[in-house]
Design a protein that fits this description.
Elements (H helix, E strand, L loop, with lengths): L23 E4 L15 E5 L12 H9 L8 E5 L5 E4 L15 H9 L5 E11 L2 H9 L11 E15 L21 H11 L3 H19 L4 H16 L3 H19 L5 H15 L3 H17 L3 H17 L3 H18 L6 H22 L4 H16 L4 H19 L1
Antiparallel strand pairs: 1-3, 2-6, 3-5, 4-5, 5-6
């Protein structure tokens, strides 16, 4: 079997207890697999596992292989999660509202802050990588070394990376005996600081903490890792919330580049950062640029059959067309958005957030109907207002704007 080595793997000290945990999964690997020759994935350095950590003085990989594969099957394939275990992933301003009274991001920021828990989730990254026969032999031989011997570096090729998202529980704390009730939702202290800063709408503080997190992750995993791509995206969202559009645009662009390098050009996760770039361009009145980016994101969501993403992005495209003066195309995309959003309403893990997106899109349809002189504009706006009031509250600026549009629509209806 040919040695497949290049860059670095995540450093991780495995103990005899670790080999019993679920986060290390061992599988057999076919020698002639096409994936083994794929050079498009990066690799990282990895320390060999010391025998002093095993009660049997045996390399842990070898020990598990002897237990699971006594016949000597190849054990050159495994799946290991990053040491970060859990980290925040922030949703940005996913749905544009034509009811926003300000040309800045203030109204969208207010909506985001009121829906904090639905705009954050916990992420985990796992890696699939391959060790060569030569590396395995070196690891097996290492079981006879003395405990004080220096660690010897081995390398392996990452075949793929996978990102998992888990709903966030903001105020979760360890139980009295110090054990977390749900370790999947545990946040490292630095990420908990970000959550607290966002909770109190201290967005500049969130940016500062994320800059430290990004630097630490670069040193830990390497600058081209998927975890760093998520850090860039999160920095973009925090900068957007802090009304620093220049920094936000830069961070989202970096996130797109890294996500594509890690997950592939067509992965739907790339769209999440693309949509934010489009929204920034929309607020900057670069309609052509925003339209191009949104349509690129829409294509990725369609290819991935991500109906919820299709709905949000179609809404945004409709808003761009309205701003460009093409009301017919705007209504067409907004109606398509409503169809997609209603399809996923009962299946979304964040049902209330999905309901809010529908209401925002419906208010956009009502606004366009009012501008076009449709007699049913007020009824459409009133239907959206019921949801907006229940989700956002009576004092929200978007709610106030929709109320004003209803009054205006009724006045125009009386004139006709």
């Amino acid at each position: 079997m040919e040695l497949l080595l290049s860059s670095e793997l995540p450093q991780h000290q495995l103990t005899s207890m670790d080999v019993l945990k679920e986060n290390v999964t061992l599988k057999t690997f076919e020698q002639d697999s096409e994936r083994s020759s794929d050079g498009s994935f990066r690799s990282r350095r990895r320390k060999k596992y010391l025998t002093k950590n095993c009660a049997t003085k045996q390399d842990p990989f070898r020990m598990i292989r002897n237990l699971l594969f006594p016949g000597g099957a190849s054990m050159a394939y495994c799946n290991e999660e990053t040491l970060s275990s859990s980290f925040l992933i922030l949703d940005g301003f996913m749905t544009i509202s034509l009811s926003d009274t300000s040309s800045s991001v203030l109204d969208a920021t207010e909506r985001w802050g009121k829906r904090l828990e639905t705009n954050i989730c916990v992420g985990k990254v796992s890696y699939e990588y391959r060790l060569s026969d030569e590396v395995e032999r070196n690891m097996n031989l290492s079981s006879s070394t003395d405990e004080g011997e220096e660690e010897v570096e081995t390398k392996a090729t990452i075949l793929s990376q996978n990102l998992e998202k888990i709903p966030l529980v903001l105020d979760q704390e360890p139980s009295e005996d110090g054990i977390l009730l749900d370790p999947d939702r545990y946040l490292p202290p630095s990420h908990k600081m970000v959550a607290d800063a966002l909770k109190f709408q201290e967005y500049d503080e969130a940016v500062d903490v994320y800059e430290d997190i990004l630097q630490a992750d670069k040193e830990r995993y390497g600058e081209s890792d998927l975890v760093c791509a998520i850090d860039y995206h999160n920095l973009g969202v925090a900068s957007l919330l802090a009304s620093d559009l220049d920094s936000a645009l830069y961070y989202f662009q970096e996130a797109v580049i890294l996500k594509r390098a890690c997950l592939g050009q067509k992965d739907a996760t790339v769209s999440e950062s693309l949509v934010e770039i489009g929204i920034i361009l929309f607020y900057r009145n670069d309609c052509n640029g925003a339209l191009r980016i949104f349509k690129e994101a829409l294509e990725l969501y369609n290819d991935a059959s991500n109906t919820e993403g299709v709905g949000r992005t179609s809404n945004n495209i409709g808003c761009v067309y309205y701003k460009m003066g093409d009301v017919s195309s705007a209504l067409s995309y907004l109606y398509e958005a409503l169809i997609s959003q209603r399809m996923v309403l009962g299946m979304s893990e964040k049902a209330e957030s999905s309901l809010l997106n529908i209401a925002l899109t419906q208010s956009n349809v009502g606004f366009l109907k009012m501008e076009a002189g449709h007699l049913d504009a007020a009824a459409t706006l009133e239907e959206s207002l019921l949801v907006l009031e229940s989700v956002m509250g009576d004092e929200n600026s978007t709610v106030t704007s929709v109320r004003d549009n209803i009054t205006l629509a009724k006045q125009r209806q009386e004139i006709h």
